[in-house]
């Protein structure tokens, strides 16, 4: 039976079906909406149920991985789109009171869709897209940014105010700031200024009791945990106070592509020895993919050397001639632009892109991601083995991200993100496809798994480290249908994402959310504190 809860309560801006939660095993939904109203100061909360005409568009608008647009994907019983802090508080208090699993979505870029799906368990989606205000303070070089804002919006607002300040955020302009920072996100200034999370001054979070906490009131441990430990395990991030960093008014970028026939293997091999040792101001990333060869009908591998240098072309050319002359960098390869324009260029956007352009992801595809960390250069024969698999596969890409610089200076325990000194670069793997159906997905995923298996001898060991923001469900996950969150199970993937910091994250979780209200399939589990676990 269709019921107008808005008519009953006079409080909610949309209609919902009374069966929307009952079908998920929860029948007393009138009490749930009455709870939302009471705890939101009686202000209107946008709530969307599956029968609402806007439900589908709201749900799918931030699904960046089209793999999870499948009809087989478990969808939320409700989508709550808070307009202010009280709405978030109400959602947390009422979902907890009525034993409803809550998922939190910022920009929707979770590789495994864990911010907006759930494995066979009914849930409510708290979608933060309405909370995206940005306040820039040029004088004290800080900004407050709400969790629903995208990195593109942030960069645009910074550029409106100044050309000599920036932020070391993500590579993709549609990534949500909330998830970027909690997962240890980084950008083209990684080697100069570290992670986005390394540049956080303060934060606001709604805890399991529905209270709003800042850095002082949440305490040192929780403030540590949310900066790289996966914030969705600890509460709902409302906003971050970020530190803006100095950038020259003019920086230099280049992109030089080489195929195997043009010496790509030798260049990538040499890159491994020098990229992490260059001055902090130089960042040279290497995306690698399969392309058409010069010979008709043949395929080859192409390496793109993409660089941001925090300085002028003349200085960069001198550095490259000294450290990496094999690349053959020329003045005409270089472009002097503003820092903001580099973000547009490397996102394949026009240099005069409008804010609205930055809010749309034109490259939404189905994908599967994985990651690795490399501590010793891979031999040429090892690289050739990678190329062989990539040529055989279809739409398999990798990207090499150089470390060193400030990343080698920050201790591994400073934040939950442990991948610091000793790592010379990170590898991101992507299988990408546009075909629909499970057969296409299985084929593409099988190729990335094959490459990942091949890479085992060449990457970090004990544990084989992984990057949280390239989430990989293959590493293991909680099963909420058949068991509770297990410390032993979570340790398997937790040690790979967080290294020796995993146990401290468990300690924090056990203190601030002992009943595991904030949870996802790869979340931090609480346990009873014991010397045996933490020794």
TrEMBL record:
Q: Name one GO molecular function term.
A: FAD binding
Q: Which SUPFAM superfamilies match?
A: FAD-binding/transporter-associated domain-like
Q: Which PROSITE patterns match?
A: FAD_PCMH
Keywords of the record: FAD, Flavoprotein, Glycoprotein, Signal
FAD-binding PCMH-type domain: which residues? 72-247
Name the InterPro entries for this protein. BBE, FAD-bd_PCMH, FAD-bd_PCMH-like_sf, FAD-bd_PCMH_sub1, FAD-bd_PCMH_sub2, Oxid_FAD_bind_N
Q: What is any Pfam family matched here?
A: BBE
In the UniProt record, the signal sequence range is 1-18
Q: Which cofactor does it need?
A: FAD
Highest taxon above the source species: Eukaryota
Per the similarity annotation, which family is this?
Belongs to the oxygen-dependent FAD-linked oxidoreductase family.
Protein's name in the database: FAD-binding PCMH-type domain-containing protein
In its UniProt entry, the species of origin is given as Stephania cephalantha
